Amino acid sequence: MQKKSIARLQFITSPSTQSYLQQIQSVVMGGTNWVQLRMKEEKTEDIEKVALEALSFCMDNGATFIMNDHVDIAAKIGADGVHLGKNDMAPDDARAILGPQSIIGGTANTFDDIKRLADLGVDYIGLGPFRFTETKKNLSPVLGSQGYMAILNQCKEAGINLPVIAIGGLMPDDLPELFKTGVHGVAISSYIAKSEQPGATTLDLLQEIGRYSSAN
Ligand code: TZP
Ligand code: MG
User: Where along the chain is 4-amino-2-methyl-5-(diphosphooxymethyl)pyrimidine bound (predicted)?
Assistant: First the structure.
């Protein structure tokens, strides 16, 4: 099996009026093919139950399913990959468990973070936060588009070609500016999850993203 490619839009679940599974169903029906199940407050057994259902839905509908934090659950259910923050399992250890085809993403706030993650073999970088967001606790300093520009330039100079995914408080108006900095794509949670119609919001976002990037 070939490793799946990294899309332009990753939807990340957030607590909202819709259940986590409903959110994933809505956005996949809205056209996105890349989702991350992020459940921070729930018990591991409850997370595993949702993950299993969400993965099954994603498999049936051609979407890539990424598990936040829980390498053990990802391994157990056969998720497409994991997203790991600075306090999670190291990416090389996760790779040893999940194997070469697994998509491993890592969180970065600086160029040094990206360099370290590149050495540890991640497949994509979640670089942020772009701006303040209530979705994540203990937020790192905001980068703004100037920050992305500077860090993406450092990546270029260092020959690091990993796909960089912008994250943190993103809204449609941010997209033209962000894609100019050289990011590969965007990860969006609350703007989609808390919208009235997450599926329709996703479709609009994908159309917008398509105007600034060559594929999704
Ligand atoms: N990591 C950095 S910012 C963030 C995460 C998980 C939250 C992204 O969610 P939102 O609601 O799109 O700001
Ligand atoms: Mg984490």
Answer: 36-40, 68, 107, 136
3-state secondary structure of 81: strand
In terms of Cβ atoms closer than 10 Å to its own Cβ (0-12, 13-18, 19+), residue 213 is: middle
* 112 assigned to a ligand binding site: no
ipTM of the complex: 0.98
Give 36-79 pLDDT, tens digit per residue. Answer: 999 999 999 999 999 999 999 999 999 999 999 999 999 999 99
pTM: 0.97
DSSP 204-215: HHHHHHHHHSS-
Q: Point out the ligand 1 atom lying closest to the alpha carbon of residue 170.
A: 12
pLDDT at 214: 62
Top mutation candidate among 41, 131, 136 for ligand 1, by most atoms within 8 Å of CB: 136
Q: Is the dihedral of CA 100, 102, 103, 109 positive or negative?
A: negative
Separation of CA 11 and ligand 2 centre (Å): 15
The answer to whether the CB of 181 falls within 8 A of the CB of 148 is: yes
Distance (angstroms) between ligand 1 centre and the Cα of 158 equals 27
Q: Ligand 1 mean position to 162 CA, how many Å?
A: 20
CA atoms within 13 A on the CB side of 140: 17
